[in-house]
Amino acid sequence: MVNISTINWLFVCGLCFCLGGIGVLSFMPLSSDCICPLSNPLAKRTGGEGGVGVMEKIPAAEKQPHDHKAAAHKLALLVPFRDRFEELLQFVPHMTSFLKRQNVAHHIFVLNQVDRFRFNRASLINVGFHFASNVYDYIAMHDVDLLPLNDQLRYEYPSELGPLHIAGPKLHPKYHYDSFVGGILLVRREHFQQMNGMSNQYWGWGLEDDEFFVRIRDAGLQVTRPQNIKTGTNDTFSHIHNRHHRKRDTQKCFNQKEMTRKRDHKTGLDNVKYKILKVHELAIDGVDVTILNIMLDCDVNKTPWCDCSGTAAAASAVQT
Ligand code: UDP
Ligand code: MN
């Protein structure tokens, strides 16, 4: 027979075991933990060479995109982000109503770069893809400051021909060259994988989208764009971007100019180096949004222009 004091002992021992376990876990090196991609029974456990962070349960796992559970295709809006809070507060409700009117099943992922290297839009998109692509079958690489105004712009699943460029050169308020694919680009999961995602070499503003255009072409794909749009460059989008307030980081240092003009055959989705430090689930005006705090890693021997001033490593280490 088991008496009360035996039960008490069992309880105390169980508690000790649990606390001990937690103690051991908290001293485990980070590399053995992971913030994993959204869960899917068929999913791999980690993304790329990174995908490493603090141990955490992800409430977003198995997340169903807004209201449209039966939709054939699910869109992950991947929003590269650093220090654009005011824009985000406009973006989230705007995009939610816009896509609701089109019945597009979607979820917004804010890819928040938290390291001290220069901004790297393309690497953030690679990381967001690793995180979301088990569940979502197409992505929109979406600037936070470009709001579509015309309901004729359909955020539909791109055709087998290739990516669907929503912010085409005849519609974008600022960029008008034929091969432009920036701003808002929708890509099928398998096409993004086929191209090995985007280059990781673009630190600072510009050219990562032009390099991606060459990847599209080299993969035998083509860019399609919305047809018969009745609005033009002034009234298709609102570009909430004041160039004095939000200065573009156009600095070029080391051999950046020369290196970033070439097609990059080496880097992409399969070798982006990062840690996801934290996953926040936030509601903005009642809309659920997932924020990934992403710490990108830069090999300063290969791409020294990720840190023109040479202070990024120190800035990450010192907390004052
Ligand atoms: N971005 C950001 N913080 C930055 C720089 C860029 O969040 O410091 C993101 C944001 O989504 C922005 C996009 O990257 O919309 C493209 O950058 P930017 O607006 O400067 O480029 P533009 O297309 O206006 O030249
Ligand atoms: Mn902008």
TrEMBL record:
<dbReference type="GO" id="GO:0046872">
    <property type="term" value="F:metal ion binding"/>
</dbReference>
<dbReference type="Pfam" id="PF02709">
    <property type="entry name" value="Glyco_transf_7C"/>
</dbReference>
<dbReference type="GO" id="GO:0000139">
    <property type="term" value="C:Golgi membrane"/>
</dbReference>
<dbReference type="InterPro" id="IPR029044">
    <property type="entry name" value="Nucleotide-diphossugar_trans"/>
</dbReference>
<protein>
    <recommendedName>
        <fullName>Beta-1,4-galactosyltransferase 7</fullName>
        <ecNumber>2.4.1.133</ecNumber>
    </recommendedName>
</protein>
<feature type="domain" description="Galactosyltransferase N-terminal">
    <location>
        <begin position="64"/>
        <end position="156"/>
    </location>
</feature>
<keyword id="KW-0472">Membrane</keyword>
<keyword id="KW-0735">Signal-anchor</keyword>
<dbReference type="InterPro" id="IPR027995">
    <property type="entry name" value="Galactosyl_T_N"/>
</dbReference>
<feature type="transmembrane region" description="Helical">
    <location>
        <begin position="7"/>
        <end position="30"/>
    </location>
</feature>
<comment type="pathway">
    <text>Protein modification; protein glycosylation.</text>
</comment>
<keyword id="KW-0808">Transferase</keyword>
<keyword id="KW-0325">Glycoprotein</keyword>
<dbReference type="InterPro" id="IPR027791">
    <property type="entry name" value="Galactosyl_T_C"/>
</dbReference>
<keyword id="KW-1133">Transmembrane helix</keyword>
<feature type="domain" description="Galactosyltransferase C-terminal">
    <location>
        <begin position="163"/>
        <end position="239"/>
    </location>
</feature>
<keyword id="KW-0464">Manganese</keyword>
<dbReference type="GO" id="GO:0005975">
    <property type="term" value="P:carbohydrate metabolic process"/>
</dbReference>
<keyword id="KW-0333">Golgi apparatus</keyword>
<keyword id="KW-0479">Metal-binding</keyword>
<comment type="similarity">
    <text>Belongs to the glycosyltransferase 7 family.</text>
</comment>
<keyword id="KW-0328">Glycosyltransferase</keyword>
<dbReference type="Pfam" id="PF13733">
    <property type="entry name" value="Glyco_transf_7N"/>
</dbReference>
<dbReference type="GO" id="GO:0030166">
    <property type="term" value="P:proteoglycan biosynthetic process"/>
</dbReference>
<dbReference type="GO" id="GO:0046525">
    <property type="term" value="F:xylosylprotein 4-beta-galactosyltransferase activity"/>
</dbReference>
<dbReference type="InterPro" id="IPR003859">
    <property type="entry name" value="Galactosyl_T"/>
</dbReference>
<keyword id="KW-0812">Transmembrane</keyword>
